[in-house]
Automatic annotation (TrEMBL), chains A, B:
Region: Disordered, residue numbers: 1-27
Organism field: Falsigemmobacter faecalis
Keyword tags: DNA-binding, Transcription, Transcription regulation
InterPro entries, sorted: Homeodomain-like_sf (IPR009057), HTH-type_TetR-like_transc_reg (IPR050109), HTH_TetR (IPR001647), KstR2_TetR_C (IPR041490), Tet_transcr_reg_TetR-rel_C_sf (IPR036271)
Protein origin, superkingdom: Bacteria
GO molecular function list: DNA-binding transcription factor activity; transcription cis-regulatory region binding
Domain HTH tetR-type: residue ranges: 28-88
The name this protein goes by in its record: TetR/AcrR family transcriptional regulator
Amino acid sequence: MRPRRGVAGVSETSQQPDASQRASAKSDLTRQRVLDAAAQIFARRGFSGTTLSDIAKAAGLKTGSLYYHFASREDLVAEVMARGVRQVAESVEAALAALGPEARPIERLRTAVEQHLLCLLERSDYARANTKLSSEVPPHLRSLHAANEEIYGALWKDLLAQAAAAGEIRSDLSLSAVRMLMLGAMAWAPEWYRPEAGPARDLARTFSEMTFAGLLPLR
Amino acid sequence: MRPRRGVAGVSETSQQPDASQRASAKSDLTRQRVLDAAAQIFARRGFSGTTLSDIAKAAGLKTGSLYYHFASREDLVAEVMARGVRQVAESVEAALAALGPEARPIERLRTAVEQHLLCLLERSDYARANTKLSSEVPPHLRSLHAANEEIYGALWKDLLAQAAAAGEIRSDLSLSAVRMLMLGAMAWAPEWYRPEAGPARDLARTFSEMTFAGLLPLR
DNA sequence: GTCTATATATCGATAGAC
DNA sequence: GTCTATCGATATATAGAC
């Protein structure tokens, strides 16, 4: 049987909260283990390079057992992707919040760039899996996922629009082209980045320097 | 039976050049049709999203017939990828040659950027297929392909190194990081670019402007 | 909840007729 | 050269024991 989900699976009127919570806790823990394994493997081998048996083995289960936790492979993929967007969004939003309300738009934009890239490179298997999966996944899953990406994309539109409105970035370039080019450069980074070549922080700095000040010699 | 390849399949001592050329021409034409169909479909649906029967159908053949022209799916993929790198390299090299020998390094670099992106966006299914496949393909194929990419990568290393040596771009940034970030931004572009949003030339201009002059207001 | 066993589908690849 | 037919491997998914 499949466990009830929603509202964290906790029955509000239960007389034995401990028992019901413990039962749900075991299921949730396994489910989490499966998701973590899936995110890690999807991030490395991509959508079609990853089978359910790969994931089950990494999570210490047999393939058939996955269907207790997920209705289908698509459902599992969709949840990994949703978590991926959410983790990046939360990372970036937290860093922006830490800047405080008096931060200038350009500083907020630079913070977003560096956090997005750091999250992708060294913080989250889910984030890496999401970017990789989003370019491989069949149209059906892609459109299911579009709404999540849209919300995060709106944050970037705002950051760029406000920087432009404040005159802190150029206004003669298409902001949507700029946004996609920046996100693209970062999305591709996990494909070639090797930690041995240097810390991710340095790469993030290089990227924001190149993006904001450009490659031409400083005047 | 498989047709002889190499030296364009033409027998130098044949008494009936017409006949032998016509025979090889038919095979070569079909082979070309298969490759074109494969490049187009791989570019759109990726490695695992594309089956041999998809390709055969698009080329007007049955699946089994593909094996007359290619020994395996891997061989077909490898040839599509090899052509992809070659087409981009030839596009860029032709544009560089057209600049003439007196062109300054920064101008050569800008030309390479714009040609690379244009080739990816609107010139070549093979180029698009190659970038998409290279991030999906199993390790075995990836290393087979590494040598081709290495050669093209060397062209970019040269362009950047010479621009830096001439003092025409900044020397305080890691050139290899810069190179990969630029190639990555362009590699991702086919994923989101829609011709309705504007000509590819404009996008190429936006990218080179952003890369060289940066997003900060012009001083 | 997880297991084993199996149904079902599909893909890459091969063999042989034409 | 292309076809039809089919083999063998592997993947997702299901059923039922424990």
